[in-house]
Structures are given as structure tokens and as C-alpha cells.
Amino acid sequence: MTSDLPNRNITTQPGITGVRRYPSTRPPPSRGVSTVSAIIEAAERLWGARGVEGASLREISIAAGSANKSSIGYHFGDKHGLIEAVFRVRIPVLEARRQPMFAAAEAQGALGDPLTLLRIAFQPVFDEIDGQGRHSFAAFLRAVNRYPQWDSGAGIEKLAPVAHRALAMLRQQVSDLPQQLFDARLRLVYEICYGAITDQDDNPPAAGPDIALARKMFDDALRTCVHLLFIEP
Q1: Whole-number Å distance between alpha carbons of 1 and 7
Q2: pLDDT for 16-32, tens place per residue?
């Protein structure tokens, strides 16, 4: 269970609830970017915008500027291999942000607070923006969460141990819930949070994202998800 790896089967100071905007770690691909990096960028962007089943591997290859139709097969194997590659590139950045959040919450004795645990899992996703100021990785995560053929598996889960630990601690707090019901609610938590994170990205380019509103919607989404997880079965 990790907020980065939707699985069909399954701080800043002051305080743990501070919101920090990180500078973009992902400038738009340039001519010097490798084919592999360009494909990962294109897959994240197209699948995030149109869904995993809404953009073919050939379209992604063309968008990445690759003239070789078999380049994705050569570098990633298949669609699932490309999804995993996006995770391998993006998740370490998020985990590096989660570690101090988790440590701060532990020092403050706040790990028993479900809102804090959800914030540890999802705040770094909110903070991650691309070169256009959009939450393209959150959109990608939402698309994967909706892709029924995806099963992250334990191998991918190991990429996000802090997120996994936070959600595992949250699971312990609702141990009376049947596993199937918890998994269904967690998928809905993903949908709510990723939807709130990406909502303002759809504003017309002239207006751009309303950052203050996006932050408010994200905070409201976290609180809503706490209530969702703790509803009596």
C-alpha cells in the first residue's frame, strides 16, 4: 500500500501540516535528453492526460521524438515495464521529502493522527510539479489507479517504504475493516487526493492554476479521506 503506487489489490516547519512548494525538479525535455528520459516524460504526460488506455505506446514514442517504433519495447519491454520505469524515476524524489516529515511527526508524537499519516503519504505528491507548473505525476498516478490491469506488486512497493509505513500504520487504526473494504476505500482515497491535486491544472493557460485554491482543496481532500476510512463498515 503506497500512495505512489496504486494497487488494484490492495514538513515542513512549523508543524507537520505546513505546505511547502518545491521548485520543479523536471524541466521540459530538450534535444539533449536521452531517449529513455524523453519516453518517460511523454508517458507520464500522455497517460496522465488521457488515461493509460487512452494513449498507445506508439503515440508515446512519437511524442518522445523517437523515430524507432520499437524503442519502448527495447528499453522497457511493455506497457507495465514503462509504468514501473516512471515510478523508479519519480518516487525516490518523493520519498526524500517524506523521510523528514515522518521523522518530525514521530518526534512530535503525531504518528497516531490519521490526518498526519495521510499528509506524509500525499503531501510530496502535491508538492511535485513539472516544468509547466502542473501536477503531471499526480495525474499519472490517478490514471494508473484507474487502470484495472495494473498490480504494483511488492517490488515496486519497496521503492516507497516511508509511504508504505505511513499507510500501514493507518491500516492498523482501522483493523476491524475487512481487507477488501479497506482496499476499496484506499483506492477511493487515491482518487480523491489525486483529483484535488490536479483540479486547478485544468484552468485555461491564461489564468493558470489557482495555487491558494489548490492548497485548500488538497487539505479538504485529506480531511474527507480520514472520515472515509473511519466510517463504520
Answers
A1: 7
A2: 333 333 344 444 444 43
